[in-house]
Amino acid sequence: MELQLRSSIGLRHKVAEEVARQAGALALDFYNKRGSLVIETKRDAQDVVSIADREVEQLIRGRIHASFPEDGVLGEEYGFEPGTSGFTWVVDPIDGTSPFVNGMPNWCVSIGLLFDGQPVVGVIAAPCHDELYSAASGCGATLNGTPLNIDPTRTIRDAVTGIGANNYVTPAFVGKMVEELLQAGGNFIRNGSGALMLAYVAGGRLVGYYEPYMHAWDCIAGYCLVKESGGWHHPFPTEGERLTKGSPVLAAAPGAIDDLRKIAGV
Fold first, then answer.
1. I want to staple 164 with a disulfide (CB 3.0 to 4.6 A). Which of 154, 211, 236, 266 is the partner?
2. What separation, in Å, do the N-terminal and C-terminal C-alpha atoms of the chain show?
3. What's the CATH superfamily of 3-148?
């Protein structure tokens, strides 16, 4: 990677960490006052949003626009603004809104960055746990400043796999993937935040994560974290309009790749 590009990524990585901390603090303030939030629904009663999601995304977008006005931004709440620099920020202001509004700590702020369609920065803040996961291309991944290195020997049979599901996927499909994982000797959790579970793969807490349909704002930051900590991820389509559509998401430690690819069919 050429020196100028490394420098550009480094500058954006630093800003991503700063913004994630600021956005996490704002989100945590909303979380602590969640009893007064007005909750709205999107696709169905389980797909919720609040003023917290919107104000946190506005904070993130404002800082990105001020620091890098030529960069593109894709966010869950306010859509896609193309840029001219080759960099595109991919943001979920609160991933895990359902846990958030129901008083559970399994939510996070996810800030990813693409360059020419590839994840090059990933920062995930989990304010309730006082954790900041951070990675940049070629620089490794950290948790609160401590380097992350995935254990390559762990498999689905001696570790836990994260799974996700939503109303884009049929109950029968979800049941089938759970059945296949259990039949293969694995076990699973679902905590309500795909981005946070991807961070847990990077941190070695989970051996893998699979969700049949997920959006870019939920996975780009996590994908960078997993790659930089020594794991593998299935590519997310980022060309043109495909960036704004859903796709299967799969990330794994080296020892779990074959089993999870078989289960996911990718």
1. 211
2. 29
3. Fructose-1,6-Bisphosphatase, subunit A, domain 1 (3.30.540.10)
pLDDT in tens, 230-249: 999 999 999 988 999 999 99
Which residues have CB under 8 Å from 36's CB, separation 6+? none
- Report the amino acid identity of residue 27: A
Statement: residue 52 has pLDDT above 80: yes
Q: Enter the tokens of residue 153.
A: 């020997």
Residues 34-54, mean pLDDT to the nearest whole number: 64
Are both 3-148 and 161-264 of the same fold?
no
The SS3 assignment for 21 reads: helix
Do 133 and 199 form a contact (C-beta atoms < 8 A)? yes
Contact criterion met (CB below 8 Å) for 253 and 207: yes
DSSP letter for 159, please. Answer: S
Cα 102–Cα 163–Cα 255 angle in degrees, nearest 5: 140
Q: Which fold has domain 161-264?
A: D-Maltodextrin-Binding Protein; domain 2 (3.40.190)
